[in-house]
């Protein structure tokens, strides 16, 4: 009995040690980021006050290495990133970040609120540093220490202290809009995205495709507010299937096969929470066989998601077909524990006016989006489609 109690105690101690180690690592990362931010501000302030140019960073890097030869992270390149880090995130910006995070938490992390808060530069104030002593009755040294302490507390409580430095470098290199940067930070924290995933998301314009682009759906009319907001947020337009080897004349079945073969990449593009149920899922109605192109279950929305794929532009009849499948899934598969099924129609282009008219009158939740085979968004990322030989090789591999 003593041995059993000891094993329980040991397990408890081991768990506490692991938790402490994680907290220590997290705290060390936050302190390192704070140091980088402070050093960046020192460089900024001295360059502004002394009129020093870029050469001062080279000199500073060399002298730091002489004084602290075992320390890494103070190369010329990294010091320049520290300067950019501090320049981007002055106190007014950090205050806005913290206020936005508070609102997102207190207002249920409304996805519509994300759009409203982050889309405009006006929502994130960008100013030059800040701390001016206005009351001469205070001891300047003590007051400055109090200001520094409050600034440190503000930084450490912000999302900036929770994101790895490698992610910050990607954001500095690829995004100038500090509102969009905050969205990618929140998204990376929520989903545990690696630096490579973050890079791919930015290069494919995920923010625009998921947040700022106008989407065509009837979710608001046919879903409860919380589910409608979340479903609309999850929907992208367009989707980018850059792993699919296909020509302009490829048919739906061929594309479905490849999406199924590359299901991990497909799920990554769809977004977090999608679980793959099957392809060409058989249903029978009135002694007639029908086949759903792709069927998923979303673990956060708690509902089935029917995906119909068209290798051509949208036609009004497509919405009716998808509506039919959604109704069948609601009747035959949905249980009392599931929310209403959502339909997603993916087309090679759409006329928005036609699509909006086609959705009118349906009581099922349907969204319509474009999809592309290559990273065609934004324009500078366009690449040529593969040659027919590549397609034939891909299909041969699938069949074999």
Automatic annotation (TrEMBL):
Any one Gene Ontology molecular-function term assigned to this protein's record: nucleic acid binding
One Pfam family hit: DUF1016_N
Domain YhcG N-terminal span(s) in chain numbering: 13-93, 155-209
Segments crossing the lipid bilayer: none
InterPro entries xrefs: PD-DEXK-like_domain (IPR053148), tRNA_endonuc-like_dom_sf (IPR011856), YhcG_C (IPR009362), YhcG_N (IPR041527)
Domain YhcG PDDEXK nuclease: start-end pairs: 234-386
Protein name from the UniProt record: DUF1016 domain-containing protein
Organism name: Arundinibacter roseus
């Amino acid at each position: 009995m003593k041995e059993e109690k000891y094993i329980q105690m040991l397990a408890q101690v081991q768990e506490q040690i692991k938790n402490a180690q994680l907290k220590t690592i997290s705290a060390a990362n936050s302190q390192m980021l704070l140091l980088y931010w402070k050093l960046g501000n020192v460089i900024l302030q001295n360059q502004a006050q002394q009129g020093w140019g870029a050469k001062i960073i080279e000199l500073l890097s060399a002298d730091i290495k002489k004084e602290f030869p075992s320390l890494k992270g103070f190369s010329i390149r990294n010091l320049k990133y520290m300067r950019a880090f501090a320049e981007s995130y002055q106190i007014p910006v950090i205050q806005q970040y913290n206020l936005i995070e508070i609102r997102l938490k207190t207002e249920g992390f409304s996805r519509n609120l994300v759009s409203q808060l982050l889309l405009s530069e006006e929502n994130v104030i960008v100013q030059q540093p800040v701390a001016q002593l206005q009351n001469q009755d205070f001891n300047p040294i003590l007051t400055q220490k109090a200001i520094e302490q409050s600034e440190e507390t503000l930084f450490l409580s912000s999302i900036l202290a929770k994101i790895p430095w490698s992610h910050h470098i990607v954001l500095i290199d690829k995004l100038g809009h500090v509102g969009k940067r905050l969205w990618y930070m929140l998204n990376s924290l929520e989903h545990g995205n690696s630096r490579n995933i973050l890079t791919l998301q930015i290069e494919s314009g995920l923010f625009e495709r998921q947040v700022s682009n106008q989407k065509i759906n009837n979710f608001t009319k046919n879903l409860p507010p919380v589910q409608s907001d979340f479903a609309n947020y999850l929907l992208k337009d367009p989707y980018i299937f850059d792993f699919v080897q296909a020509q302009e004349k490829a048919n739906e079945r061929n594309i479905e096969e490849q999406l199924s073969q590359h299901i991990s990449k497909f799920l990554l593009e769809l977004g977090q929470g999608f679980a793959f149920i099957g392809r060409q899922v058989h249903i029978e109605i009135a002694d007639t066989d029908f086949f759903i192109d792709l069927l998923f279950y979303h673990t956060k929305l708690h509902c089935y998601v029917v995906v119909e794929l068209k290798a051509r532009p949208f036609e009004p009849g497509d919405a009716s077909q998808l509506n039919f499948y959604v109704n069948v899934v609601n009747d035959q598969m949905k249980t009392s524990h599931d929310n209403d099924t959502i339909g997603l129609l993916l087309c090679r282009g759409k006329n928005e006016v036609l699509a909006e008219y086609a959705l009118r009158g349906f009581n099922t939740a349907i969204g319509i989006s474009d999809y592309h085979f290559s990273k065609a968004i934004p324009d500078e990322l366009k690449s040529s489609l593969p040659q027919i030989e590549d397609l034939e090789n891909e299909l041969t591999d699938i069949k074999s």
